Amino acid sequence: MTKLPYKRLISYGCSFTAGSELTDHEFLGFTEDELFKYVKKHKITGTYELFDSLNVTPQVHREVLAKNSTKSWPNYIGKHFDLPVINRAIPGSSLSEATYNILKDSHDGRITDDDLVIVGVTSPARWFQFTDDGGYFGGVFGWMPESEYYNHLLHGWANPYNVVYSHYKEIAFLSNLSDRLNQQIKLCYTFGGPDYIKYSYEEELKESKFSEFFDFSSSIFPKHNFIDEVSLCELAMIIKPETHHVFGHPRIRFHEQFANILIEKMETMYND
Amino acid sequence: MTKFPYNRIISYGCSFTSGEELADGLYLNMSDAELSEYINANKIKNSNELFYNFLKLDRNTVEKIRKHGKTLSWPNFIAKHFNVPLLNRACAGASNEQMLYYYMKDKYEGEIKSTDLVLFGLTSPARWHQFTNQGDEIFGVAAHPWSGVDPEFQKSFIDNWFNSYNMSFNYAKTITFISNQSDLNDNNIKLCYAFITPKTYKYSVLDQLSDKRANDFFEMTMNMYPKHNFLFDDICLYDLTSDPKIEGKKFHAFGHPKIQFHEQFANILIEKIEASI
Question: Which of A69, A89, B253, B255 might form a disulfide with A13, Cβ 3.0–4.6 angstroms?
Fold first, then answer.
């Protein structure tokens, strides 16, 4: 095992890094099969709805989230390199939110020079902003609460041009920040790899205007701070009960497989 | 004069860098006083209204006026001093985000060379930039109408996005991005505040900062971005007009500083550029 020049690993990302669903059934006292049946029967569309329907208290929900965060892929990396892990990933969050949390944690002294920061890059069609009282508003387009503003965002902002440009700019921001911090921040794809956007906007890319814009946008981010190009979701592409939990998150063996790919790359990276 | 290690200057900015209003009187064959009187008498709110609605100018003429303004603003004095050509890519109403987009696009298209000095005249955080579903740009100042946009759409963003949190965080993030680009390119990008400094900006959102949480957040964001690529960070072009010793009219009809302030601003920058090289 290579000795990394860090004392701690701090991870940021969305539900794929937060380990969403990994231990939910245990807390709820269900088998996975029972949980699938329950969700199907009650036509439940997400974790919060499920926990509400079972009258799970917010305290228990927080405990589930905390437990999940100790099971996901960064934990395998931490264990392999013998580093404690602080998993700061938030289900439903965007890459912009991860950037904000890194900047804020850095400002507050919660990230030090001895920390390796790993960001699990999520899918691009997400939003993050502050509310007037300093709270947060955002999430995945298609899954945010209905409002007039949300409709304006969805129909007037969430088009391929803004989504693609903002996503690549965000990656570039993090990569540039890493360069300023002696490559302390490493990136990997968790939800959507390099070809994900191309696949998502396959139709739009047939238009030369968007295709040219796409080429420009994808040119702005450097790749050298990525550990690898593989993404966690690619390891289990087709969502089915044998490979995924009820709301579509990959089962734990894919977290381990993903971590092992990253570990192998990191072994080479830090040996050099 | 110090030997200048660049072959050209490229500037990005808002109306304060694009020289908005500097050439209007020359093209319209009116003195500044006559133009102001005409604008006041007709209660005209902005240049577009003046050019298109009242004077019925065609697009080509308006473009010529704006192009001429670009040859008069502060970056021109700097280019002249160092005897190099200038490419002024500033655009009236632009946000810092938009300047960054133009810079990245120009870089991608090979327009920017390693022998270019790039100057960013930063503007106010209260601006918007995005793309339409067809890939065209929407941009503008928060309080003024954005062209080609349903007013309801703009209002929605004014009501829900334009608070001190979003403005200051995005401001700091964009400046950080630009500064990092400079670090990656031999520090060939230099920044200055053209329209507003953080101090003046703070004053403009002071009512929102009476809340401790908002104030702490504001201070965090203003301390967040790197300052080492700034030519100086305590004064902007607009600030120069506040000297009480200056007599006479300081602004054109729509509030842009007159040419002497551009020259004065450029002279301060020239001194800093010479010291840095």
Answer: A89
Cα–Cα nearest to A266, from A228, A229, A232: A228
Task: Determine whether B118 is exposed, middle or buried from the number of CB atoms within 10 Å of its CB (0-12, 13-18, 19+).
Answer: buried
Q: Read off the pTM.
A: 0.95
pLDDT in tens, A75-85: 999 999 999 99
CATH architecture of the domain covering A8-19+71-236+251-271: 3-Layer(aba) Sandwich (3.40)
pLDDT tens readout for residues B225-245: 999 999 988 899 999 998 877
Nearest in space to A88 (alpha carbons), one of A102, A76, A77, A78:
A102
* B18 pLDDT higher than 80: yes
Contact B219, B205 (CB under 8 A): no
By the CB < 8 Å criterion, does B130 face chain A?
A: yes
- Name the architecture of domain B8-22+72-276: 3-Layer(aba) Sandwich (3.40)
DSSP assignment of A58-98 = HHHHHHHHHHHHTTSHHHHHHHHTT--EEE---TT--HHHH
Chain A contact set for B108 (CB, 8 A): 216, 219-220
Q: Do B180 and A173 touch (CB under 8 A)?
A: yes
